[in-house]
Design goal:
This is Integrator complex subunit 8. The chain is an all-alpha fold. It has 49 helices and 4 strands. Among the domains are: about 130 residues, no CATH class; about 150 residues; about 210 residues, no CATH class; about 170 residues, no CATH class.
């Protein structure tokens, strides 16, 4: 009985409940009828796509000749049968490319479809574009069509930033880039082939399980036999519908470089839509109708197609109005949409952003912003930062327009009470944010105020209005509310100062300061030399004329910053809120300062929650505020208002850094790469650095030639890490990044997601190829540095160490980061620590070695380093065992290790983990030579196990090796963990 059969019997006999055993790939070779039975199961295990991978992987395994040289796969009956089985699985799936593309990698699917071309008798060595499809047998022509459909679909799909996670044979991942490049080079030929297929009006036939079986039985079939015409019939309309959709997709993809391609795409999508309406059923048409509708809308907008379509009338109307510069009509359409809700919010926001980039349209932007804010309120969304900035300096026409849009948005039959309540809350928010009494009276006298707000709410708002009317501006006289507490002259100044140092409650701080100023008029912000505010703000605060107000602002800010540093965010909010309320009345400059600091407070508070294990995404309001801050200096309405009153608002550099860090950490890559204004990138070096990082992360799955930003990021970071500073200004603002070297290094250490950049830089500056540190995505970076002597080696080394340590605090089970950490220990000669981490990396990706460790984790390089670690610790038997793990067993190293007599490991207790008979035979020889009879007997016992018999089938030998690998790695983990 084979080892696998024995395992099955044991599994059945076990008292524990067992899951059905997975059918092995080789069983389908033994039983010709098994495949069809397996595929008809409700949930076959393995699944069809897994079977295709297994069949092709086994059929493409290279062979080794007598000289131990690797040869291409043998073209024998076994391999041909495996390839045919893979085709039969695909035929069972009716050649649905949607399903095949989701389950298979590009190289695997390329191999599968090339096999289809081969069995379909497509003439070898002839370009498909040179074939006349009308003269080919039906299944032959269909094979050509399927291949070229896949080719153009793959070009489109591979351009999307999507991580490759699909399984495939070992060689296939290496071929991914090559396959994509070849397909792109042949794109025009594939399009021509498919356009030729659209000219054919006859039905098509595609291979089925039956026709493939016929081909296998009739090896002399020449394409004209029954096997080529008895396949599954696909009508011309069905095929044309699918081909029009696929060809339209490739033309749309080419439109970014060729504007006329959009017109071709539109024509093909129109044909697709017409054929879909014509077909009664679409069994053989596999397309995403939502994506088709999106393509159609985009093409119409890009080609200015005025053709009407009832489903996209709203989009067409807006696009045509924008092209005609009829901005008032766009505003009216937005107001109507507040009732119909036919336009999605993201489209409305994109229209607003488009107007923001045009000069002279401020009023249009304000009105669209108001329309969007009311739509957000109707849908229960958070009001945007841009709208809140509008409310900082409103005027009469703006308030009138807000009330008008609110009124029109409620003009709907059978309006629900929920929507009325939402608009009521919006009116309430408006009243709470307006500071000018005339504007408040405009709102309070409007019919919506009376109809939508309850009596109690109206009373509260009216009381607030009365209080505001009695408020005196601090710029002329201190606020009465801050100075209405009488001072006590009997209290000792020293006691009050001590109390002032300890207090965190804003009102008590204010009361204590009033009492101190009543006793002695002096500067109490100097009482504690540990009270510190950022240097950027000192001059602004100390320029406050009223001494009491100056002390209060300084102390509230200093205490708030201290609370943030000790992560007491609750008290920090209280202190900053009180400070904001105070400065709002007399200093727009300080008001903006406090808004910025409160934003930084919320960002750090959320970062702290994340560091403590919270996986909650930041609220949309916080993300909007961060975006608002980044955009404020260029486009913000608030910015222009502030600049008109106080042209020198101090902006702390760290706020910008933290905002960019925040956007990167929460993967707002689309904003940093697509939505952030270009002028902002040019003027803010940290946004520029963030954009480079975001762009590089987005381009990681793409082909090598598309990684322009990776090269640019490499150059920037190398210059940041350089000792000398280049003073020549580049057009992309890189000088700013280099000048702020210390701060830039801090940002990189805080949010550099892909560590490979520093790992490669570390290896280059060490100039030690053998002991280089590995990491993910090393291939995207340049491999050389022009001015290597200028790089600060110490800065790079410190950054690498801190970066990996910090990354592992965030995710201690990331095997790639663990391998990188182990490499750092290895290159610094810390072999025990390195082996510990290498074993951890293998354990986390194999459920503590109960499964096979993936070859990309325990690559030959990692295994060789583990071998050296064991060797340096004099664990020579462990070295010999690990030599078996290599793709090619390293007998030279294993024999040399076994010759060592001064071994610090358990020696013969590891013999049970050796499965290579050659090593076991060498062990028996060396123990016999030394006269070590007892150890020789242990080695003889190990070599005598039946499952190691070289006459066993390959599957049995592999099973025996995997069992020993698992047990050995578990034993090593117990030793070193």
């Amino acid at each position: 009985m084979s080892a696998e059969a024995a395992d099955r019997v044991a599994a059945v006999a076990s008292s524990r409940p067992s899951t059905p055993l997975q059918t092995s790939w080789f069983e389908f070779l033994l039983d010709g009828s098994l495949l069809e039975k397996h595929l008809k199961k409700a949930n076959p295990d393995p699944t069809p796509v897994q079977l295709i991978v297994q069949f092709l992987e086994q059929a493409s395994k290279p062979s080794v000749n007598e000289q131990n040289q690797v040869q291409p796969p043998v073209d024998n009956r076994r391999n041909r049968t495996l390839k045919l089985l893979a085709l039969e699985v695909a035929a069972h799936m009716k050649w649905d490319l949607d399903v095949l593309e989701k389950g298979l990698t590009i190289p695997v699917l390329n191999m599968l479809l090339n096999e289809l071309l081969c069995v379909s008798k497509v003439p070898p060595g002839v370009k498909h574009v040179d074939l006349d499809l009308s003269t080919l047998p039906p299944t032959t022509a269909m094979a050509v069509v399927i291949y070229n459909r896949w080719a153009i679909r793959t070009i489109v799909l591979s351009s999307f930033p999507e991580k490759q996670t699909k399984p495939g044979p070992h060689q296939m991942n290496v071929l991914y880039k090559t396959s994509c490049l070849q397909l792109k080079e042949q794109a025009n030929d594939s399009i021509s082939v498919l356009e030729g297929a659209l000219q054919l009006k006859k039905d098509f036939y595609v291979h089925t399980l039956r026709t493939l079986d016929l081909l296998a039985a009739d090896t002399a079939a020449n394409g004209e036999t029954e096997s080529s015409t008895a396949g599954l019939c696909i009508s011309a309309d069905e095929l044309h519908c699918q081909v029009h959709y696929d060809v339209g997709g490739i033309f749309f993809h080419q439109g970014c470089t060729d504007q006329t391609a959009y017109q071709k795409a539109r024509d093909h999508f129109r044909q697709t839509k017409d054929l879909l309406k014509k077909l009664d059923s679409t069994v053989h048409v596999h397309l995403d109708e939502k994506r088709l509708a999106g393509y159609w809308n985009a093409c119409k907008a890009l080609t200015e197609d005025c053709d009407s379509d009832s489903q996209t009338t709203a989009y067409d109307q807006i696009n045509s109005l924008i092209r005609a510069h009829n901005y008032q009509a766009v505003i009216e359409a937005f107001i109507r949409d507040n009732v119909t809700h036919s336009l999605p919010n993201h489209f409305r926001q994109s229209v607003l952003r488009e107007f923001l980039y045009k000069s002279g349209l401020d009023e249009v932007c304000h009105k669209l912003c108001i329309c969007n804010a009311i739509r957000d309120s109707l849908e229960g969304e958070v009001l945007s930062v841009r709208f809140q900035q509008l409310l900082l300096k409103p005027n009469k026409w703006m308030v009138d327009f807000i009330l008008e849009v609110c009124t029109l948005s409620l003009e709907k039959e059978h309006l629900s009470e929920t929507l009325r309540r939402k608009i009521g809350n919006f009116i309430k928010t408006l009243c709470e944010n307006l500071e000018e009494l005339p504007l408040l009276f405009v709102v309070s006298s409007h019919k919506l105020f009376i109809e939508l707000l309850k009596e109690e709410e109206r009373k509260v708002l009216m009381e607030q209005m009365r209080k505001k009317s009695a408020t005196i501006n601090l710029s002329a006289k201190p606020l009465p509310s801050f100075y209405d507490i009488p001072a006590s002259a009997t209290v000792n100044i020293g006691q009050l100062e001590q109390q002032l140092i300890l207090l965190l409650e804003p009102r008590k701080i204010r009361q204590t300061l009033i009492e101190l100023h009543g006793l002695a008029e002096r500067s109490y912000w100097k009482v504690n030399n540990k009270w510190e505010v950022p240097p950027d703000y000192i001059n602004v605060i100390l320029s406050i004329k009223d001494n009491l107000t100056k002390d209060l602002v300084y102390i509230l800010m200093a205490k708030g910053l201290h609370c943030i540093s000790i992560k007491d965010f609750a008290h920090a909010r209280q202190l900053f809120t009180a400070c904001l309320k105070l400065v709002t009345e007399f200093s727009p400059k300080l008001r903006q300062v406090m808004l910025n600091e409160m934003l930084l407070l919320e960002v750090r508070a959320h970062e702290s929650m994340t560091a403590e294990g919270s996986k909650e995404r930041p609220p949309p309001d916080l993300v909007s505020r961060v975006r608002g801050y980044l955009e404020m200096r260029i486009h913000g309405v608030l910015y222009y208002f502030l600049m008109s009153l106080c042209p020198d608002v101090p902006l702390r550099q760290v706020v910008g850094e933290e905002c960019v860090t925040f956007m990167l950490n929460w993967r707002e890559n689309d904003y940093l790469t697509l939505q952030v204004p270009p002028s902002l990138v040019m003027n803010n070096p940290y946004i520029k650095l963030g954009q480079l990082l975001a762009s590089t992360c987005k381009e990681l799955p793409g082909p090598k030639e598309s990684r322009r930003t990776a090269k640019e990021l490499w150059e920037v970071v190398v210059q940041i890490c350089s000792v000398s500073i280049q003073h020549k200004r580049n057009s992309d603002g890189r000088l700013s990044l280099i000048k702020h070297r210390e701060s830039s290094m801090g940002i990189l250490q805080r949010y550099f997601r892909s560590m490979s950049h520093f790992m490669l830089l570390h290896s280059i500056v060490r100039d030690d190829i053998v002991n280089e540190v590995t990491a993910e995505h090393l291939s995207i970076w340049p491999s050389s540095i022009p001015n290597l002597q200028a790089v600060d080696v110490e800065a790079v080394a410190v950054t690498v160490t801190e970066l990996v340590s910090y990354a592992l605090t965030l995710n201690s089970n990331n095997q790639s980061w663990l391998i990188t950490q182990a490499d750092i220990y290895f290159v610094t000669n810390q072999y025990s620590a390195a082996l510990n981490i290498y074993l951890q990396a293998g354990a986390v990706c194999s459920d503590f070695f109960t499964k096979v460790v993936p070859s990309d984790v325990y690559s030959d390089q990692v295994l060789k380093r583990m071998i050296k670690c064991c060797s340096m610790m004099n664990c020579h038997t462990q070295v010999a065992v690990l030599c078996q793990f290599l793709r090619e067993v390293d007998y030279m190293t294993a024999f040399k290790a076994l010759q060592e007599q001064n071994s610090h490991d358990a020696m013969d207790s590891f013999y049970d983990y050796i499965w290579d008979v050659t090593i076991l035979e060498y062990l028996t020889h060396i123990h016999h030579k030394r006269g070590e009879t007892e150890k020789r007997q242990i080695a003889m016992k190990a070599i005598g196990q039946t499952e190691l018999n070289t006459s066993n089938p390959e599957e049995v030998l592999q099973l025996a090796a995997q069992k020993r690998k698992k047990r050995f790695l578990q034993a090593m983990a117990k030793l070193y963990f």
